[in-house]
Amino acid sequence: MSVLRGRLHRLTQQLPSVIEQLPDESLADAWNVLQALYYDLYMLTAIQESMYSIRPGDAMTREEALRLLNLP
What we know:
Elements (H helix, E strand, L loop, with lengths): L1 H20 L2 H30 L8 H8 L3
């Protein structure tokens, strides 16, 4: 795993210069490839942060949420 971690660190260090060299039409293609990964990492971070910030009583049960949604 440390080999993969090292490769990812080197890749992320090189990305800013590579992105600057891409033509505009290639940026859209690159985003299409990376979009799912970006959103997955965003959600994973949000889930991990919520594990530490949500206290008992902060979240609703399914029934409570449905009741709230059905209010006029």
